[in-house]
Amino acid sequence: MYKISKQFSFSASHVLSLLDESHPCARMHGHNYLITIHLKSETLDGYGFVKDYKSLEMVKQFIDETLDHRHLNDIIPAHPTSENIARFIYDRFKPEIPELFAVEVSETPKTSCIYAPESE
């Protein structure tokens, strides 16, 4: 099995309003997010790639146009936790990138979450 990954970044705000109001994340705040998409394949294409990294430009374009410097509560249909952001990005790109098997979201250098459906 071959596995590759590519990272993207963006800055955005959110409010985790389901938390108790005394929780700091219940107030509007922001993060410099790091998104990593993970791809895998049993075989390589004719160029020796799982996927040409250049063909993933659409992910960067989507992040730049849809998420960067936005308020995520206005964009993510679910409560905008890292977990739900990862699922949102996975669901958006899985139909176009069949090799996609996981999306990782990091809000800080010390935290991250990975969404990877069990069927992958």
Describe, in plain words, how this protein is organized in 3D.
With 120 residues, the chain is of the alpha+beta class. The chain has one domain (2-115): Tetrahydropterin Synthase, Chain A. Helices cover 19% and strands 35% of the residues. The protein has a five-stranded mixed beta sheet. The longest helix has 12 residues, at 82-93. It is elongated and about 55 Å long. The model has no long low-confidence stretch (mean pLDDT 95).
Query: Any idea how many domains?
Result: 1
The helix tally amounts to 2
CATH level-1 class:
Alpha Beta
> For the CA atoms, what is the radius of gyration?
15 Å
Distance between the termini: 12 Å
Q: Got a strand count?
A: 5
Cα shape: elongated
Q: CATH homologous superfamily - what is it?
A: 6-pyruvoyl tetrahydropterin synthase/QueD
Quaternary status: single chain
Q: What is the spatial order of strands in the main beta sheet?
A: 3-1-2-4-5
Uncertain residue segments: none
Please give the largest β-sheet.
Answer: 5 strands, mixed
The CATH architecture: 2-Layer Sandwich
What structural class do helix, strand and pairing data support? alpha+beta
Overall mean pLDDT: 95
What pattern of helices and strands is seen along the backbone? EEHEHEE
CATH topology, which one?
Tetrahydropterin Synthase, Chain A
Per DSSP, what share of the residues sits in E-state strands of 2 or more residues? 35-45%
Task: State the share of residues found in helices, binned by percent.
Answer: 10-25%
